[in-house]
Amino acid sequence: MKDKKPRRNNDRRNQQKNNRPKERRIEPIEPTESEENNFVFGHHASVEALQAGRGNKLFMQEDAHGDKIDQLKSLAKEQAVPVKWVPKQKLDTLSDGGVHQGIVLGITPYEYLTLDELLGKTAAEEAPFLLILDSLEDPHNFGSILRTADASGVSGVIIPKHRSVGITPVVTKASTGAVEYVPIARVTNLAQSIKQLKDAGYWIFGTDMEGTDYRQWKVTGPIALIIGNEGKGMSAGLKKDVDEMLTIPMTGHVQSLNAGVAAGLLMYEVFRKRSEL
């Protein structure tokens, strides 16, 4: 009689296999915007941020001197913001190679408004004028638009939360501090925000190669103007929600203007028409 071979304990092995921790799938993390680097640089941007009470620590080049430096030291003292004198290389690093003029200011994060808060701020205005930036990507364009918005009396700016530049150090520098004066709301869905604006009595205008000549634009009452992406223009999904398209006539060889230039021209058209003597 042959000896029986010992049975392999398959049940035990299977149980051990089933009890092994399953390999976790790691989802890719969406990179955060550079606005997480809470620094502004340059004289004007630093002055405005200090005056707005957003300064944490002021870094200045160790050999810097002059009236502008004295002004910043005085503002920092008034706001109880510590001053640190550092080598130029340190400022180059903090400003990511930007033109810092020997000045970098650590600030608290920018606090965006909700759309409801922005509408509340403009409720007392007889004819508020809002600017909607549809997926603008260039921080220099954004900063330039904010600077013109402040100069031309725009009531507020609306930007999308995703796939759009936010308030970064470069935007703040390009705006020369206007970011501290122009209310900015950041929303999750532009289409829903436009519907809310319409319900609040706003007329919505877009920009396109074909449309009404902007010089014939009727700017009475509450209005909102959409400025499209630098390369793609306005998204197709928003065009169906627009009450009227505006176009800027051109006789040259290029097909469109820079987004910042086009926005500036249209903002000042509203300012001009509403300020006519």
Q: Averaging pLDDT over every residue, what do you get? A: 84
Can you tell me the number of structural domains? 2
User: What name does CATH use for the topology of the largest domain?
Assistant: Alpha/beta knot
| Percentage of β-strand residues | 15-25%
Euclidean distance between termini CA atoms: 119 Å
CATH class designation of the largest domain: Alpha Beta
Please give the CATH architecture of the largest domain.
3-Layer(aba) Sandwich
- The level of helicity is 25-40%
CATH superfamily of the largest domain: SPOUT methyltransferase, trefoil knot domain
Key features?
elongated; 10 helices; single chain; 10 strands; 60s Ribosomal Protein L30, Chain: A; 6-stranded parallel β-sheet; 23S rRNA (Guanosine(2251)-2'-O)-methyltransferase RlmB; 277 residues; 4-stranded mixed β-sheet; 2 domains; alpha/beta; Alpha/beta knot
Overview of this protein structure:
This protein is α/β, with parallel strands linked by helices and 277 residues long. The protein folds into 2 domains: 37-107, 60s Ribosomal Protein L30, Chain: A (2-Layer Sandwich); 115-274, SPOUT methyltransferase, trefoil knot domain (Alpha/beta knot). It contains 10 helices and 10 strands. The strands form 2 sheets. The chain has a 6-stranded parallel beta sheet with strand order 7-6-5-9-8-10, sandwiched between helices. It has a 4-stranded mixed beta sheet with strand order 1-4-2-3. It is elongated, with a radius of gyration of 27 Å. It holds the Pfam family SpoU_methylase. InterPro entries: Alpha/beta_knot_MTases (IPR029028), Ribosomal_eL30-like_sf (IPR029064), rRNA_MeTrfase_TrmH (IPR004441), SpoU_MeTrfase (IPR001537), SpoU_subst-bd (IPR013123), tRNA_m1G_MTases_N (IPR029026). Residues 1-36 are annotated as: Disordered. Residues 1-28 have a biased composition (Basic and acidic residues).
